[in-house]
Amino acid sequence: MITIAGAGLAGLACAHELARRGASVTIYERSARIGEGSVSRYAGGMLAPWCEGESAEAQVITLGSRALDWWAQITPVVRRGTLVLAPARDRAELTRFAKRTEAHEVVDETQIAALEPDLAGRFRSGLHFAQEGHLDPRRALIDLARRVEEMGVTIHLNRPAPKRVTLDCTGMNAPLHGLRPVRGEMAILHAPGVEIRRTLRLLHPRIPIYLVPREGHHFMLGATMLESSATCPPTLRALSELMNAAYALHPGLAEASVVELGAGLRPAFANNLPQLIWQDGTLFLNGLYRHGFLLAPAMAARAAGMLIPEIEDADHRERRTA
Predict the structure, then answer these.
(1) Hey, which residues does 65 pair with through a beta bridge?
(2) Are residue 140 and residue 67 in the same domain, yes or no?
(3) Of 221, 239, 267, which residue is a domain's last?
(4) What is the pLDDT along the chain (322 residues), one digit of tens a residue?
(5) What does DSSP assign to residue 62?
(6) Co-location of 147 and 164 in the same domain
(7) Residue 190's closest CA among 234, 236, 221?
(8) Are residues 103 and 251 part of one domain?
(9) First and final CA of the chain: distance in angstroms?
(10) Domain count, the chain
């Protein structure tokens, strides 16, 4: 029996990989509902490994490129790419972004209008990362929980984990040295008059902004990085920057209804890469930073491999070793 503390993104992904290897798995979650206490509820759900190459290590691209196919087996994934844009005054930011990334196409004003007709005439150039996609984080967690239960995993909600567990996936609650919080702030908007079909990233010298479409003309608007340990709701300054960026992308967003505001603390280590750490007989998976949905599948597979070593026979059927 393998026990897991935390039914958030990391815990559920690990349960999936462990159950796939034939393990008997039980998860303990403090919250009463899946996703209720998870920082992932404030995520953008962007599966954008090549965009992340602008500031992340090469490992993020390598591991993250597998995530789209993994998630597509569990929850709907929209594969229309990512469109990176910048206001005319910040075109140097677009040039810098292009030099630091790969797997993109430079698009002009006509091509931008073909990709997103609602943006016609608003931006002269951009970068299109056609291989990328996005998902709805809240739905993805629920779908993943349903999948692991179908695989035989037991999930105990509203129940703290025992003092000793096999695997700890509790984020900022884990007793790990060097773990720090990175604050993510977001707003969910409802804009019936706006048609955006793919993730947009608006480059800004201080805080790049992203807009991710959801069902029913809803959009998730967020900032990619805010170094802060504050647990308060979004600040007025942050909201002003978010809303100004939304207006810069599409004037129709100025008339959008604000459905929800939120902020979450994402766990990260100094190098912003996730780690698997043995401590006092427990394996910890932590530090997914802002790459949670991108890196959770690969890191979960690594964790499962550490707990249940396996080999692959000539027919490519996985078997547990003795």
Answers:
(1) none
(2) yes
(3) 267
(4) 999 999 999 999 999 999 999 999 999 999 999 999 888 988 999 999 999 999 889 999 999 999 999 999 999 999 999 999 998 888 899 999 999 999 999 999 999 999 999 999 999 999 999 999 999 999 999 999 999 999 999 999 999 999 999 999 999 999 999 999 988 888 999 999 999 999 999 997 667 889 999 999 999 998 765 555 555 677 777 778 888 888 888 999 989 999 998 888 899 999 999 999 999 999 999 999 989 999 999 999 999 999 998 544 334 334 333 3
(5) H
(6) yes
(7) 221
(8) yes
(9) 16
(10) 2
Q: Look up the CATH number of the domain holding residue 65.
A: 3.50.50.60
Range of the domain at 187: 82-130+180-267
**64 and 154 both lie in a single domain:** yes
- Indicate whether 213 and 260 sit together in one domain: yes
Report the C-alpha gap between 107 and 121 in whole angstroms: 13
DSSP string for 222-286: EES-B-----SSPPHHHHHHHHHHHHHH-GGGGG-EEEEEEEEEEEE-TTS--EEEEETTEEEEE
Is pTM beyond 0.85? Reply is yes
Q: Which one-letter amino acid corresponds to residue 188?
A: I
Indicate whether 199 and 292 sit together in one domain. no
Using CA atoms, how far apart are residues 132 and 65, in angstroms rounded to an integer?
9
Tokens encoding 85: 């844009």
